[in-house]
Amino acid sequence: xxxxxxxxxxxxxxxxxxxxxxxxxxxxxxxxxxxxxxxxxxxxxxxxxxxxxxxxxxxxxxxxxxxxxxxxxxxxxxxxxxxxxxxxxxxxxxxxxxxxxxxxxxxxxxxxxxxxxxxxxxxxxxxxxxxx
Amino acid sequence: xxxxxxxxxxxxxxxxxxxxxxxxxxxxxxxxxxxxxxxxxxxxxxxxxxxxxxxxxxxxxxxxxxxxxxxxxxxxxxxxxxxxxxxxxxxxxxxxxxxxxxxxxxxxxxxxxxxxxxxxxxxxxxxxxxxxxxxxxxxxxxxxxxxxxxx
Lengths: 132, 151
Hints:
The complex is a heterodimer.
Chain A lengths: L1 H11 L7 E3 L8 E3 L19 E16 L3 E5 L4 H10 L5 E16 L3 E16 L2
Chain B lengths: L1 H13 L2 E10 L7 E2 L17 E16 L4 E2 L3 E3 L1 H11 L3 E11 L16 E14 L4 H9 L2
Parallel strand pairs in B: 1-5
Antiparallel strand pairs in B: 3-4, 3-7, 6-7
């Protein structure tokens, strides 16, 4: 029980470290959420005439802490991971847009007899299409 | 003896728990482009250059997602930010949101270790969403012609 409490304390006190944050600061092409593609209100093309997807973006930013009485292991994804993934699937071309179809965010906290796990994560999925 | 075993079992049960929550962030009724990168397209399809944009405000929204039964049941499966996007952009006269950032972390209710053993105990995740609201300078045809014909 004492081990569990110590693990809980270690894992729960990780609020001082960075959270799981998803962003695409270095991507030269739009990564779009929602139906509007352009300034002025142009919406996404109807499916029959929409440009076909040329690639798929699927990336997760995670911050996970596994703590026991004896150790604490923290895994924090590089905040640039999402940008690298987007640059990879768009070939860093400005002529390709990412149309996001899912952004999921969540967390859980597991508390066992001698271990505690805290996990925060944000994932994004979307199609890469050539800009019209 | 039997009561001691029951006590040990109860302590063991109360020493194991899990709580959490997840949700999806959506914006199906947003009236302006929302980009998670700094890039956004103008009406003609070209990328808006940095010189033609100015940041006129910041977008900020915080949501709480809830779950039960050890996070297996999503009480808030979706978080629609459309209304907040439209309201905050309209308030500052913006044209788009860029560099949208989404942050997730477990909230305080998730850390009640003993109560986490109960499947009905809710877990929650705080979702923080930030971005820059920009206004795009429009180059209409008349001003372009006037500029071109100026001596």
